[in-house]
Structure to design on (493 residues):
């Protein structure tokens, strides 16, 4: 008699760009060579310091082998995996938008279910708008503008057709939350867009993805193709296309992005008119960040009160924070607004690597303020950070150690602005170049104290006179470096 074949053991390995960069594909290939092992590729939990992770099912839930090397694979199952509930980085998070990460197969359409859409299609457009407004959903792309007001404006504008645009340009160095959604949970973004389209009466949407995200582009296109094939999009009377950017930071700014979709050079438009009234091809357009749109399904499913129950007075819900730089545990942390920078950097990020001492943290990308240790008690919420002279931006948190030279860093970011400026307005086009030259003079030891005064004055002009956020926010790293780390400048004058 032939003995029945043993049930294959299922193991889960992330199919995410960062996990792959850490070696996940090589580990998956070794695993698939083992007899009786079935490898399922999932999204990543975002605990990148532990990738490649190999997860297995246990009666108590998932457990994982951590930082697996291909050569360890043949003997892997002789070891004991770590229950995920015992990994504080994961266990302490409050995950909603990223709840299925690490478990779902990104392109499994039936497994996703589109439950929020099923609820939304029974609601009137005005009921959806009312729920999003009541939830006080603020944009997660940088400007923190209430999504409901934007949507209502587009809905109320009589011009046709209307468009939904997802901003997946994600230009801030050290940020990757959008990429994780595009690669790991693409149907969630589609569902958010479908709900927005029903609310405002749009029939066409675009997802603008940076060209540096080839895997995200491919996954998103595959997800759209499946949603078309299985009638999900046609049922919602809405269709979506992917547009690929060409590598300009300014194309993340909403009006430059619209120009880029229209096939023009990415130049910022004057506002008003705002895109909600005159956007893509002059038509009313809702443009939202990927995370904003990916938060919508939970608001519809769980209700506005759920969203209002999380966060601070003015920043409601959760925020995916992305830890990078000199930190022990880089990765994505979804938590309610309101934790302090210190809690996130030390409790989740594990602090700095051994031998490194904290010097500064930059929140909100290359245009964000540089905070010293004494401001680590600042709460992560749009308004608390603004009050402290910074921004939350897209939730990037980059930690610098005491080997970092703040003049070099400030020069680096100002040069970035000079390179990325679209050139439309003088304070940014000329100001960023002159500021970068002044900082270079400081670095070369050629500056005098009056140059610092000039740098501050230039910063003020850029802040108050620039047409868009790039020029207006670019002085923040320089001005905060001057304020909090004056010695780095002083010793060179
Ligand atoms: C220079 C610059 C770059 C920006 N880059 C991005 C980006 O990469 N992704 C994004 O969602 N928003 C970016 N924004 C913000 C957008 O202009 C806009 O506020 C956002 O897409 C609106 O969506 P939200 O309300 O959902 O955040 C950028 C803004 C500026 C000034
Ligand atoms: S601030 Fe800079 S990027 Fe923005 S419009 Fe002016 S020149 Fe262009």
């Amino acid at each position: 008699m032939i003995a029945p074949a043993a049930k294959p053991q299922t193991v889960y390995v992330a199919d995410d760009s960062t996990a792959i960069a850490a070696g996940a594909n090589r580990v998956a290939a070794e695993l698939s060579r083992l007899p009786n092992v079935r490898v399922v590729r999932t999204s990543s939990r975002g605990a990148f310091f532990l990738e490649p992770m190999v997860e297995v099912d246990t009666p108590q839930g998932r457990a994982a082998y951590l930082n697996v090397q291909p050569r360890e694979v043949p003997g892997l199952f002789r070891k004991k995996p770590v229950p995920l509930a015992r990994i504080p980085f994961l266990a302490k998070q409050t995950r909603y938008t990223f709840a299925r990460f690490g478990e779902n197969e990104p392109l499994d359409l039936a497994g996703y279910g589109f439950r929020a859409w099923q609820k939304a299609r029974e609601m009137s457009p005005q009921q959806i708008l009312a729920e999003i407004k009541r939830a006080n959903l603020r944009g997660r792309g940088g400007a923190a503008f209430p999504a409901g007001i934007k949507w209502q404006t587009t809905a109320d504008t009589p011009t046709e057709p209307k468009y939904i645009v997802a901003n997946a340009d994600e230009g801030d160095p050290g940020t990757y939350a959008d990429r994780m959604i595009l690669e790991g949970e693409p149907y969630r973004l589609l569902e958010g867009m479908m709900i927005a389209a029903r609310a405002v009466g749009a029939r066409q949407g675009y997802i603008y993805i940076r060209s540096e995200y080839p895997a995200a582009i491919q996954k998103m296109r595959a997800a759209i193709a499946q949603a078309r094939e299985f009638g999900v999009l046609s049922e919602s009377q809405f269709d979506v296309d992917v547009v690929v950017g060409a590598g300009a930071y300014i194309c993340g700014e909403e009006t430059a992005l619209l120009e880029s979709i229209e096939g023009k050079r990415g130049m910022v438009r004057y506002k008003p008119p705002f895109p909600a009234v005159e956007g893509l091809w002059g038509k009313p357009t809702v443009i939202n960040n990927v995370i904003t749109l990916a938060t919508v399904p939970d608001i519809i499913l769980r209700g506005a009160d759920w969203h209002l129950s999380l966060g601070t007075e003015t920043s409601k819900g959760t925020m995916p924070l992305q830890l990078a730089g000199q930190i022990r545990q880089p990765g994505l942390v979804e938590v309610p607004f309101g934790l302090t920078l210190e809690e996130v950097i030390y409790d989740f990020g594990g602090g700095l690597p051994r031998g490194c001492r904290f010097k500064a943290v930059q929140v909100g990308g290359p245009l964000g303020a540089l905070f010293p240790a004494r401001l680590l008690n600042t709460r992560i919420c749009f308004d608390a950070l603004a009050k402290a002279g910074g921004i939350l931006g897209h939730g990037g948190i980059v930690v610098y150690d005491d080997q970092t030279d703040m003049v070099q860093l400030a020069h680096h970011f100002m040069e970035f602005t000079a390179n990325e400026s679209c050139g439309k307005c003088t304070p940014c086009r000329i100001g960023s170049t002159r500021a970068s030259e002044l900082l270079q003079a400081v670095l070369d030891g050629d500056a005098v104290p009056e140059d610092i005064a000039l740098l501050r004055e230039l910063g003020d002009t850029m802040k108050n006179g620039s047409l868009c956020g790039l020029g207006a926010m670019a002085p923040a790293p320089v001005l905060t470096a001057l304020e909090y780390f004056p010695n780095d400048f002083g010793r060179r004058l």
Q: What stands out?
A: The pocket of iron/sulfur cluster (ligand 2) is lined by residues 250, 268, 421-425, 428-429, 466-468, 470-471 (CB under 6 Å). The two ends are 88 Å apart (CA to CA). Residues 79 and 137 are 45 Å apart (CA to CA).
